[in-house]
Amino acid sequence: MTPETALVAAIAVPAAGALLIGLAGKAPNLRETITLATAVTLFAIVVSLVLSWLDGARPDVTLLTMLPGLSLRLTAEPLGLLFALVASSLWIVNSIYSIGYMRGNAERNQTRYYIFFALALASTMGIALGGNLLTLFVCYELLTLSTYPLVTHHGTPEALRAGRTYMGVLLATSIGLLLLGMIWTWQVAGTLTFTPGGIFKDSVYQPLIGILLALYMFGIGKAALMPLHRWLPAAMVAPTPVSALLHAVAVVKAGVFTVVKVIVYIFGVEHLSTVISFDWLSIVAGFTIVAASVVALRQDNLKRRLAYSTVSQLSYVVLAAAILVPLSVAGAALHIAAHAVGKITLFFAAGSIYTAAHKTEISQLDGIGKRMPWTMAAFGIGALSIIGLPPTIGFASKWLILQGAFEARHMLAIGVIIVSTLLNAAYFLPIVHAAFFRPEAADATPHGEAPWPMVLALTATATATVVLFFLPGVPLELAQQLGDIAR
Amino acid sequence: MSFPGLINSWAAMALMMIGFYAVIAHGNLVKKVIGLNIFQAAVFIFYISMAKVRGGTAPILGDNLTLFSNPLPHVLILTAIVVGVATTALGLSLVVRIRDTYGTIEDEEIRAIEAAE
Amino acid sequence: MIVGQLPILQVIVPLLAAPICAILPFRRLTWLIALAASLLALAIALTLLDQVLSDGPISYLLGDWAAPWGIEYRVDPLAAFLLVIVSALGSVIMLFAPTSVAREIADDRIFLFHAMYLLNLAGLLGMVVTGDVFNLFVFLEISSLSSYVMISLGQSRRALTAAFQYLIMGTVGATFYVIGVGMMYMMTGTLNMADLGTRLPAVAETRTIIAAMAFVVVGIGLKLAMVPLHFWLPNAYAYAPTVVSAFLAATATKVAVYVLLRLVFTVFGGPAMVGLPVDQVLLVLGIVAMFGASAVAIFQTDAKRLLAYSSLAQIGYMVLGISFLTATGLTATIIHLFNHALMKGALFLVLGCVFLRVGSVQISQMAGLGRRMPWTMAAFVVGGLSLIGVPLTVGFVSKWYLIQAALEKGWWLVAVLILLSSLLAMIYVWRIIEVAYFRAPGDDVLQIREAPVMMLIPVWILAAGNVYFGINAQQTIGAAQSAAAVLLGSGG
């Protein structure tokens, strides 16, 4: 397969998978086999793309011209490849987990669930590999639309209300601000192609750059910068595998991915650092990190606590990009991957607790570690990674970001990272402690581990969190290449 | 513009406003149609006066006749009259059917019936 | 040579087919005639578009009387584009019609419906091809009179009052237009549009011409339901048979916008316009329509009424595009003429299917339809997304150009307003989607089957058009751009 075909196939395969899943809707076993096969194929394609990139191939495909001068276009570049790699590899694990979860909880409308899941992945690939802002925007919107039926999966009034918040915030920001920013950019710069170093000429009126930056940063609602974070806790009504892959990995990462992409390839790191009005972004991101952590401390519902933790962690990436030195940009890219594996482990654990014990609140978890040792051990490892302690990949990304912050003498960033690390520890470690060292409530109903596909999945991601610390290999390589591009 | 032309314009405008007023103010549907007719007739007068040339005759070829009224507006208005007749006919037939189904042709009563439904 | 006669054939074919239908009381036969006439009109329109794009505008003299005295038919890229929109939508809707019409119109009146449809089509096509302002009035009245009749064919007795209300307002509008035309004729001595365009500037500062401009704009504004002259439209669309609502929403308002374009650019001179500040008036009215009508649409309980108000809002976009008086703005308006015809056509036809099966288009009655009528409601989702302006649909293309036009002028506030108003569209579209897909169906809904294939095909032709021309907009944009160039060129 040439890299060019691989680029197209990365989107076509999950889309075709969605179609096949729909056709196989009557036969659950076949349907799930197709899901898994699609996920594995997609991963193989992305791996081949990454390998050919490391070999020096620079594929670039124009699919079709949409408007005069504007086309739908796919390009491979390090950041996108890293994102695609993370999303596609976790999709395999998540599919295994989904099968266990959906069957274990006897969910309804499973075919619809798998179809839209595959479509969401196709959109994610489009975001990762989009060669210009238009392509990225198109797939960004498709991702919102294809995840809506997953959020409202249960069809209860509560789910519908959450779905309205979800769609409302995401579409309102993207249509109201991001689209405006994009058309304005097209007006000013005459192109939307992602170009290393940015597309704005020096002659562009500087305050306009500031306005555009604000339009982008708040227009990308998926990055969940406060005050536009409300959709993420709302989305937690979805089945847990959706929260795990989409609202800890694909959707939210699509947000911060777009933030980094826009800063590196539309504005240009160096160009942006000359615009003085810029530093508000670090303040907003820093505020989001601390405030969301404090809110997370106060949540008793496990998934909501994880959601606020995600809000906080996403702003790490924004903050890292806002520091505007190559090292921190590389850290931002690596953090996308690090947080993904860590957080998905935590969500998997939450889902398997729900499936095995039907518990959703943290206060119910006393002593659960003895009944579900695998799950809670994985939870502990995931928590370590989010806090940023060795030996997990979370440490590596935080280290890079901190190094960048020191290089730029960005005191705000350093302070925020230290405070938030403490807060992270404060909201995760008590859970682990309660699970293993507190006695179980006397009236507890006995239960065992979750179904084996779920345990398998969460063990795999927990292992990955540790292995990546020792062998960061390809992700680190790609992140560093991005840092070079930002230079 | 000289005396007769101007007075015709005034008359046309006065008729126009009378007709327009009837359309807006009257609740009776037949009176609305009548108002519409007055309104349109005013426009016809306006066009025909516009075509009049002082001292001109009817636009028919003949010996020693050099000054004609402009025939074009006449033709136009002929068309407009036909359109007006068609509109009136359609309007009245709608009124008949409204009377059949609602039992009234008073705007307010119809509205009351619709609101009660 | 028949090719030379195409501009007149465009009008004559449906015009002659209409009386034939009126004397043949067989509904199958008249349907075939109506469909054949629409398809023939479409073929002619496509040929004309092709000719015009390659060889430039066509001028056709009626009865060979030279232009300022005789009536000139003039087909330029814009006119040809409109001809294609009108006849294509007419054909698709006719394809859809039989089953839906049989449900909504009494059997013994169906042949008359076909006759009226053909008259309406002839009137609309005539308004587009003619280059003569008075001839335009005649065609305007042909299409208006036939649409009053078609609306009154609706099942509810309110259709009668809606038709009457429309008749009164439509006639007042048309008469206003005639007054304006008379005044212009008085000052310039010509009725030919191009001629008027060259002679008006000399007298443009006179009070007569300023009054004339006001009269014609208000007259056409009534016809195109420009807020605040829109009161007839919601009732007319809500109570007319669904096929009629679809046809009127997709074509009649489009042609009215076309007439406004002609008047503002060819006759008044576009950017060089003096006298009345028509552009500023349109700017304000367009924005008011965008917000006011969308806001009202959110609170409707009847899906047809909701779409009617949404049409008002979309007309606001088109009017707004005109008010920019720039090439990009015009492109946005012209492309939206086409795009809006596609989306509203699809959405109204979907409601036709829903009415056929459910017997009502109340939103509350649509609960659970997503599962019962999957193909129908999927088409609704496509059309709805297009209305919101989601990428990969035609609505996105329109929005793109409209916002670009606003930014080009430096009116970023207007750009923000356009985007905010499309969020309102999101709210009202989503209300229906949520009910159809995520509300538990009532017991009676369980009996409902999918609409017949013969209805689904036209629905999906339009829905697919929404996506196809949203992904591959080059051709339509190209046509719209050359049309805009012609308008600006002729405006000087």
Task: Give a quick set of tags describing it.
heterotrimer; B: 117 residues; mainly alpha; Helix Hairpins; 75% helix; C: mainly alpha; 19 helices; 2 strands; 77% helix
Structure write-up:
The complex is a heterotrimer of chains A (487), B (117) and C (492). Chain A has 487 residues and is mainly α. Chain A has one domain (3-486). Chain A contains 19 helices and 2 strands. Chain A has helices at residues 3-23, 28-54, 78-104, 110-129, 133-151, 157-189, 206-219, 231-234, 240-267, 269-273, 280-297, 302-323, 326-357, 368-371, 373-387, 393-407, 411-437, 452-470, 473-486; strands at 60-67, 70-75. The longest helix of chain A has 33 residues, at 157-189. Chain B is 75% helix and 0% strand. Chain C is mostly helical and 492 residues long. Chain C has a domain at 277-492. Helices cover 77% and strands 2% of the residues of chain C. Chain C contains 19 helices and 2 strands. Chain C has a two-stranded antiparallel sheet with strand order 1-2. The two termini of chain C are 34 Å apart. The mean pLDDT of chain C is 90. At the A-C interface, strand 1, helix 5 and helix 6 of A face helix 16, helix 17 and helix 19 of C.
Shape of chain C: globular
- How far do the termini of chain C sit from each other? 34 Å
Q: How large is the radius of gyration of chain C?
A: 21 Å
Q: What profile does the largest beta sheet of chain B have?
A: none
Count the helices of chain B. How many? 4
The stretches of 5 or more residues of chain C where confidence is low (pLDDT under 50) are none
Q: What gap, in angstroms, lies between the N and C termini of chain B?
A: 56 Å
The CATH architecture assignment of chain B turns out to be Orthogonal Bundle
